[in-house]
Design goal:
single chain, about 300 residues, mainly alpha, globular
């Protein structure tokens, strides 16, 4: 085991050989190639072809016009599908624009580092503000309903709410039938438990707390102790959120941005290690849960 850990550390060290910004550009290109594959639409084709070309012909990764072209591809895709995009699709576009600015600048690492910190901070700030403005988060109803209907949260609904998979499947069926008939969903039609209602409130306030702390730690330099803990707070958010809700695209992007702005080499290695091992640790809780449910 000690040798494996040593080899792992050596590998991470080799990957992080200067200039670090090139590693971040390559990782971003990989994410651009892979993200959104499960919801493929034809307007993604130019960005996927360009990302693959940049990976095959490595000098393109630092080419100014390649990143400008990638930015235009994402902008066109976003404008075409603006009404149906999930939040992190826009975050990808912002980050690609940052990459384009960085490769055109004389100090690419500093540009990436500064913008990564502010993008993370502003993203979490607006996420926190939205939760305060929307009353359905403060009373726990948003997460309560989401746990009852979203198949990705089945593990949480069973563990936190005391529900079973059959009941959750029935809830989703009721929701789909209601949607197809254009009727208004009556929450009383869904089966829930008092535990699930309490869990919805607790998890809602935990989300507000951790997102607010991440926003404050990335945007403010005082108090100093909070600013110094920003990497640990972001990692706590990623691990506690995406092991329950496996949204690989957003988690991976946060880790890439966290990597370039990390306060020291140790934190950068942790970001990179979590990013590389994401296909293992992210689905692991869901996989164990599914195995246990099948055995029972």
């Amino acid at each position: 085991m000690r040798n494996l850990i040593k080899q792992w550390n050596i590998w991470l060290t080799n990957l992080m050989q200067p200039p670090l910004y090139l590693l971040v550009l390559r990782l971003t290109t990989i994410l651009l190639l892979l993200h959104g594959i499960d919801d493929w639409v034809w307007t993604m084709l130019p960005e996927k072809v360009l990302a693959l070309t940049m990976l095959v012909y490595s000098p393109l990764v630092r080419h100014r016009w390649a990143w400008l072209a990638m930015s235009l591809c994402l902008l066109v895709h976003n404008l075409w599908h603006w009404s149906s995009l999930v939040n992190h699709e826009y975050m990808y576009t912002y980050w690609v624009l940052v990459c384009a600015i960085a490769v055109w600048s004389q100090t690419p690492r500093q540009v990436l580092r500064w913008n990564a910190r502010w993008l993370i901070g502003l993203c979490f700030l607006f996420a926190t503000l939205w939760k305060f403005l929307g009353g359905e988060y403060l009373d726990g109803s948003f997460l309560h309903l989401t746990f009852l209907l979203d198949s990705r949260l089945a593990m949480g609904a069973v563990l936190f709410g005391g529900l079973d998979l059959a009941t959750l499947a029935e809830n989703r069926q009721i929701f789909e039938t209601t949607q197809s008939s254009a009727a208004v969903l009556d929450p009383q039609q869904l089966t829930t438990t008092p535990r699930m209602a309490v869990a919805g409130i607790v998890l809602s306030y935990w989300t507000i707390l951790i997102e607010g702390l991440v926003a404050a730690s990335f945007l403010l330099t005082v108090p100093r102790w909070l600013y110094q803990k920003r990497d640990w707070l972001l990692l706590a958010f990623v691990l506690t959120t995406y092991t329950v809700i496996p949204v690989l695209g957003f988690a991976a992007l946060l880790l890439v941005m966290g990597l370039i702005q990390a306060k020291n080499n140790l934190m950068a290695r942790i970001y990179l290690g979590l990013l590389i091992s994401m296909p293992v640790w992210m689905p692991l809780p869901q996989g164990i849960f599914g195995l246990v449910q099948n055995l029972l």
